[in-house]
Each structure stands twice: as structure tokens, then as C-alpha cells.
Amino acid sequence: MAGNVGIVDLRMDLLSEYVGPFHYLTFYATRAALDAVAAHAEARPLRDLRHRPGIGFADPIVRHLLLSLQPLLGARTAEAVGLHVDHVSTALLHHLARTYGEMCTRPARVRGGLTPRQQRRAEELLNERLDGGITLAELAETCGLSIRHFARAFQQSTGVPPHRWLIERRLEKARDMLVGSRLSLQEIAAACGFADQSHFTRTFTRATGSSPGTFRRERGS
Fold first, then answer.
1. Domain count, the chain
2. Whether residues 101 and 200 fall in one domain
3. pLDDT in tens, 133-165
4. Global pTM value
5. What secondary structure, in 3-state letters, does 141-197 show?
6. CATH number, position 174
7. Within this chain, do residues 83 and 142 fall inside the same structural domain, yes or no?
8. Of 12, 98, 124, 168, which shows the fewest CB atoms inside 10 Å?
9. Is residue 193 domain-shared with residue 101, that is, in the same domain?
């Protein structure tokens, strides 16, 4: 059924029969990745993910997380392996571990946000890598924190998660370039770290209510 999810243990020998054309997206969750999720959550290592081989089922969280990647599929730049994909992968791994691996986490300890020095360094790195070619692990390591703690502390300090902060900086730079330069939309998209002009137009229009071309014309550039 359209939108269904299936979990497959690659240690098993499975046969599949396709009765018609369809599109699908494969997400590989390695044992090491699941163990890392459990370690960061201060939980016991997972055994296996509960599933019925070959049986599809509805999971709206998995579906919406994967659909959020759709605009990036086929992108030819680092955007396709950037911070947004990293966020989705991390969220998906945590969801799989909690829902199908029965991971029990300890109550989160209340902690503050980033220190001024940590926040400044994280923002510097994000600004240097507007193309999204940076991972949560790199940002967390720079701040001396676990991925889970860093993501929570960054949002507490800035009000938004790292990938949203990055998108806002891209849009801010794009607005300045639309008004202050005569570069083409394709050139601005590349300079601001968007996958391509189409991705730039969709993101800009969704955020501002105007397309980049309309925004530029209204400001006489």
C-alpha cells in the first residue's frame, strides 16, 4: 500500500515479488548506528527491531521524515548529504530504536544551552559551510558535547534546530544578493548552498511568500 513501511533484517534470506511498478526509498540502519543511538540516549544496547518480515505497515512518522527528503533527491551538490539529511537520519534512528527496538531512555537531565563560546563556534562553522556539508557529529564534537546534547542545547540557545538556523542564514544571504547583485537566480542558489535553482525557489517562496524573481523585481534590482 502506498506510504507503507517495511523493516528488513539483512541477516535473513528474503525473496520479494513485485506485481507492478512503484517507487520506494531504502534507509539502511546499521548495527553501529543503532548502538550509537542507544549510547547517546544512555540506554542499554538494542537487541533487534521488532517486525514481521515482508509485511508492510503504516508509520506516519517514518513516512513524513522520509518525504521531507524528497526535494533533495537527485540533487547534484553537497546539499544532498548535508545537515538536513543528517537531522532526518538521526530522528529516524531514534524513532526506530524507541518504537521497534523498545529502547528505554532515562529522563533527560535539565541542562542549559550552549555557552557563548560554543554557540559562536557552532555558528561560525555553519556560516562557513552554507552548502550543508557539515554533520551534527562535527558540530557536537567542536563543542565537546554528544550529538543529542548539542542538538538540544543549540535549539535552547537559538530557538531553532541547527538545520533550520542554516536555512535562515541561506535565505538571509539570498535576500541580500537578490537586492545587491545582478547574479542570476541559478548563481545565487549555488552561492547560498541550495541544491539547485528549483530548490532555492521552493524554499524562498515558502519562507517569504514571494518567489525570488518577484522579490527582486519589487525591490527594483
1. 3
2. no
3. 788 888 999 999 888 789 889 999 999 988 889
4. 0.61
5. HHHCCCHHHHHHHHHHHHCCCHHHHHHHHHHHHHHHHHHHCCCCHHHHHHHCCCCCH
6. 1.10.10.60
7. no
8. 12
9. no
Same domain, 191 and 91: no
pLDDT score, position 122: 94
Q: How confident is the model at residue 221 (pLDDT cuts 50, 70, 90)?
A: low
Does residue 5 contact residue 57 with C-beta atoms inside 8 Å? yes
Domain range for 124: 109-159
Query: Does residue 174 sit in the same domain as residue 99?
Result: no
- Which amino acid type is present at position 48? D
Grid coordinates in use for 77?
A: 551538490
Same domain, 31 and 87: yes
In this predicted model, what pLDDT tens digit does every residue of 63-108 receive, in sequence order? 888 887 776 666 555 444 466 777 788 888 888 888 888 776 554 4
87 shares a domain with 21: yes
Calpha distance 94→221 (Å, rounded) = 46
- 175 confidence band (pLDDT: 50, 70, 90): very high
> Which secondary-structure segment (H or E) carries 94?
helix 83-99
- Contact partners, residue 111, CB within 8 Å, separation at least 6: 149, 152, 153
